[in-house]
Each structure stands twice: as C-alpha cells, then as structure tokens.
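Entry 12.
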Amino acid sequence: MVVDDGLNVAKIMVIGVGGAGNNAVNRMIRAGVNTAHFVAINTDKQALLLSLCDPEDRYQIGALETKGLGAGAEPEIGEKAANESKELIEQIVDGVDLLFITAGMGGGTGTGAAPVIAKIAKEKGCVTVAVVTKPFSFEGNKRSKNAEKGIANLEKHVDTIIIIPNDKLMEAMKPNTPFVEALSYADDTLRQGICGIADLIATPSLINLDFADVKTTLKNQGLAHMGIGSARGENRIVEAVKGAVSSPLLETTIEGAKSVIFNVTGGTDLTLTQINDAAKSIRDIVDPEANVIFGANINPELQEEVIITLIATGFDADGNGIAEENARAYNELFAVKREDDEEEEKQPAEPVYEEHTAWAPNRSYGVNNGAQYAEQTAERPTVTRGEYLNRDSRAFNPQNAGYARPAEPPKAATPEYPDERYTAEYRQPRPSAPAAYESAPARYEKEEDKPKKDLPSFVKRLFGGKKKD
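Predicted 3D structure (tokens):
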C-alpha cells in the first residue's frame, strides 16, 4: 500500500511467512487495518487457501523443493524454498520503503524462509522490521533450538526485530483462558506493533511524523520495543504512557533506549500540558542522551481519551536496555507492585545526619533531630556525653561522643545496637535545658513510662521475633 501523508510517500508492506505469519496477517485484515499492503508467503499450498489476502498477494515458494506440502518443521527446507523463489521475492518487495516480516520461529517455513526474505529486502533498500514469536516451552527442545537459531540468523538481515515469547502468555493470561483466545492476544500484540509504526507514517497529524523520522529510529538498530497505550479519565496520560512503554508479552521495555519516537493522539481537549507530561514521563525512563521525536494528532472522537504510540530502539548490546537507575525511575513513575499485588513492606529509612551548631561555643556533628534543634536559640546546656539518637530510625552513633566528629557516618540499627538499646543510659540529663527540650517527652521520658510497642519488622526478621537479651 502506498501511503501519502501530504508531504511524503511511503510504501508499507506486511509479509506473513509460514503458518503463524499467515495467521497474524489474517488477524490484522479482520481488524480492518488499512495502512499497509498485506502479503502471505508459504510453502504449504493448502494453507495459502485459508489466507484473507487478495489472491494475487498469496505466494507459494519452493514448489520444486516441497511439492507444495510444506517444510515439515525443518528450517533448512524453508531456507531452500526461499532461495529457490528468490526472483519472486525480489518482485514482491520491489519499491517497498518499510517492510514488516512476521513469522513464528521454531517451525520450517517461518524459521528458514524469513531470514532469506529479509536479506533480499535489505538488498533492495527496504527498511526491514521483523516481528516474530518464540515457541512455548512445552513444544520441546528441538523447536526451541530451531527458534533461537532462526532469530540469530534473522537478526543479521533486519534493521529491527521485535520478539514475542509465547511463554509470556502464561504470565499475562488467566489460567482458564481458552487457548484460541490466548493466541489471539499474542497476534493482537503483534498487530499493535506493526500498526503503530504504519499509523505514525500514514495518519496526518497536528505535529507530523514522516517516514524519515521513523527510518532514523529503525535503521540498523537491532532489538526494538513498540507499543500502544490508551486510557481515559483524569490520569489518562500516565496510564497511556504506562501501556505504551511496557507490554506483558514483549521481552523489552523502553528503559535505556537511545532513540525514541512517539505520537500522542487525543480529542479536541488535548492540551499542551498533557503532551509535555507524556514526553517528560518517557524521558524519565529512557537514556538521558536519547534522541526523542514526537508527534501529535487530534481525533474528535477521542474525548477524554488519549492514545500513545511509541517505538524505542538503541538498547545495550546484550539487548537488555534496562539500566538500574532508569528501571528505578520507571517503578517510581508508575508505582510498580510485585506480582502478587501485595505492597512491599517499607523498610526503615537510613537516618539523615546533618551538621548543626550545638552547645556553644563548640561544634557537634550529631543528628539534627527535628524542630527541637531548629527552634533552639536559647542558652545550651552543658553535655558531657553526646550520643544523639535519630528516633525515626532507632539508630544512633556510638562514636559521636563529646564533641568529636564521628570517624564514619552513623549506620542504621544493627544486631549490635538493636531497638532495645534505646534506653535511659543513652539519654543524659539536661537540667538547664530550655522549654523546647522539656516539650519533647519522647526523648526525656523514663524508660519504664515509655509505651510498650511491638517490635519493628526489621528487628523481628533479625531475631526471629524475639528480643535480644
């Protein structure tokens, strides 16, 4: 299909290779996707009869090699079939600017033929993107090894690759989900990735993204992340970004990406602030030096709704792309919870130690214990021992005696100094203390009058729920 956005013309094609690839193309056609030209390629003549592509867009390859009976789950046969039909494949991809190749890895035709098709397409000047699935673990070691070899071979000949492991369906779907529905969910993820890029180019926008922008992001980039997020309501920007940057079926998120292109589509109520919020949320996660390109589009039908389409590339060589600091930013931004949805127990914060002027004319470097220090302007009492306690974390510094600077920063409570060390022996009397100190009963109350509280959780974990004698 030739797409003209008013400024640029780009021909976008999606080729489904093998049984899984043909099924994925069928689903996109059923979904009414009209921003790309769909083609089905297979070694199995009977399987092509089930394709929803136009008859002239269904191609049998390797007729001499396979006799039209398929590759029999042998990638070598699929590869030979594609090489046999090299001239036909060259004709199919001729003039295509952006080519998507979708296939299931592990079988014969998809695994063997897809890399050959990708190589031919790149030689013809196409920007080539592969969107492939990995087999379920229960399909056996042979199929899994075939898939790994096929992906490794495919990566050599494509600009960008998106990998969808079928095993992730186990994590994303409920246990009682019908198998057909689960496979449809995987196909839908694939469809979103392909449609997301095609729509970026094909849909006229308020702030336009052309093929050159997409080409810059995809060309020779290796592993990629593509996603679409949509949301309604007051918090729709954050929720839409969350859906776009992380898919439960993909092996990637956008952490550490060095090149990002995204588009924000909203109704007539879409504001500049919302676009800025989306951009800021994305920038907080990707590499600080990432090249970020964005577009914006108005769809009057999307009142109080936002759709964000995103492509991220330029990950680390190992394909991970998840830098520790950026992963932390993602978790903080979206309040990520554990899989069991239980909020993790908050650990006591490390005490904050600040230098402050105390007990004039000397200087002490202890804990600034809140307002009772800040408000203290009257005459300071004389102190002979200066072990100051941070009551919030139940930690103190035994080295901070007198007016000496501690040899090292005070640490949180340890087995040597558990909670019960918070006793009267470490609270020296201050007979001349002003009212600010007298108004702090938690610091000066008698130990026996102190309310009994349950042990903090971190002490329970250290001592098995029992106090250390």
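Annotation: The first helix runs from residue 18 to 30. Residues 21 and 103 are 4 Å apart (CA to CA).
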